[in-house]
Design brief:
Length: about 200
């Protein structure tokens, strides 16, 4: 273990011993001010330790094209942007499933915030992930419109192609609340992903 890490752990131990002495000296009970003063150094020492050992965050953006078999096959397009830590990531996504008036298929726009859980490192240039999220939707067909809340879950892979450019393949299931024409939509897409 590096000496700087040992020193930080020793500092954290000293703060814990000081906190224990304050609690014992005050008869086991502490006022809010005393408790705040006793806990603040421990909080900041822990925060400094975590910040010094954290990996840098990574961001990426994706533009995609795909299809949905709900209720019959039709095209979808959209984009997403996200921020990933080591295993957990956060992403905002917009997608638009176009209305098909000749086949009488409804259109669907979704706006969602998602949490991704992913492999911490690429395996032979491929990173796997699972995702779940929530957001709003707008389903429409001719004079019909429904705007409400929806949930989604799914997963996919990001395959490194060249430098920061990756191919992203994603599958999602959307559960729409309210009174949509179709309460469950499936979506599959392939997109160009740029990591930075």
């Amino acid at each position: 273990m590096p000496s700087s890490t040992k020193r930080r752990l020793e500092v954290g131990t000293v703060y814990l011993l000081q906190l224990e002495r304050v609690i014992i000296a005050s008869g086991g009970g502490m006022s809010l001010v005393t408790r705040t003063r006793a806990v603040a150094p421990i909080f900041f020492a822990t925060l400094a330790l975590l910040a010094s050992t954290a990996t840098p965050a990574r961001a990426d953006i994706t533009a995609f094209l795909g299809m949905s078999p709900t209720p019959e096959r039709h095209s979808v397009k959209g984009f997403s942007g996200g921020l990933s830590l080591l295993v957990v990531g956060f992403e905002f996504e917009y997608s638009h499933l176009g209305e098909d008036t000749t086949e009488a298929l409804p259109g669907l726009k979704t706006y969602s915030g998602n949490v991704l859980v992913q492999t911490p490192v690429e395996i032979k240039g491929t990173q796997f992930y699972g995702t779940a999220g929530a957001g709003g939707y707008h389903e429409y067909q001719a004079a019909y419109e429904e705007t409400n809340f929806g949930l989604n879950f799914g997963g996919g892979i990001k395959v490194r192609l060249l430098g920061p450019v990756r191919l992203r393949v994603d599958y999602r299931v959307f559960r729409l609340k309210g009174e949509p024409l179709y309460p469950t939509y499936q979506r599959f897409y392939v997109g160009a992903n740029l990591a930075f």
